[in-house]
Amino acid sequence: MTAHDTPVLSAATHLIDTMERMSGGPYPGCRRSGARGACFSGTFTPTGAASALTAAAHLHDRPVPVTVRFSNSEGNPHTPDTAAVTRGMATRFHLPDGSDTDLLAITVPRFVASTPQEFLGLTDALRPDPATGVADQARVREFIAAHPHLAEPIMQHPPIPVSYGTATYWAIHAFIWVTDGGGRRPVRFRWEPEARREELTDAEIATSTDDYMTTEFDDRLRRGAVEFTLRVQLGERDDPTHDPTVAWPDERREIVAGRLELTAPVDDQKYWDTQAFNPTRITEGIELSDDPVLKFRAHAYAESLHRRRAGR
Question: I want to staple 179 with a disulfide (CB 3.0 to 4.6 A). Which of 112, 145, 172, 183 is the partner?
Fold first, then answer.
């Protein structure tokens, strides 16, 4: 570890400490975000539309097996699926050479902070008051007033979906595609459901079980495969790659890179509960952008995994 690494690791520890307090934890053995979730298996079939833009093996012409974990964003494993929170879709592509690459996405198109420091400040502002169990709204308003560019991302309110299989998931960060010849192109990923996007009604929320999203998805798979399309937005020269709170213009060209077909729950859910998906687990043909939040997430995920495996 270098002297340069020390502040980053310290910030990651601070973040995980704060996330534990936000969720009323810690909950030993659980993820600090996305504690309630389940994994499913399937196949990703590339269309070949990306083959001239990246050397990434899973985006050329050969189907690859995948493992996908759906979750809600809370660090409390007892938070019900009816909570008004973001949902996550973490996809691990199992590549032909035996390696893996991950793609993590959530049900909002923009992140809530531009830098790790802003995210730490936001989590501190959202920390529940010990007396009330909820965040001090005056403190939250003070944070937004000091960071007005974050007001819109922070106020995103994702709908409560009928199913994990009817939601759209954005990877929020920019990545860089690299060709065998060294060509480079910034990109952003999005999973679009093949099923019609639907939201729960108030009556359905009132009668749904705490784990309805997992049980619903299991039932949906019994009726047939659940499919998603991987859409990729191609950035232009001046599109920012360093700020996950800023969307690129809607008119940017998009391609369909492939289609995902999920067919069954994984055989060993307990094993996958011990694993960690990571947005910086990339493969040849994909590079991290200059987004500081993306790089910081690797340290935060490592700290969370360390605590889980230590039974903390």
Answer: 183
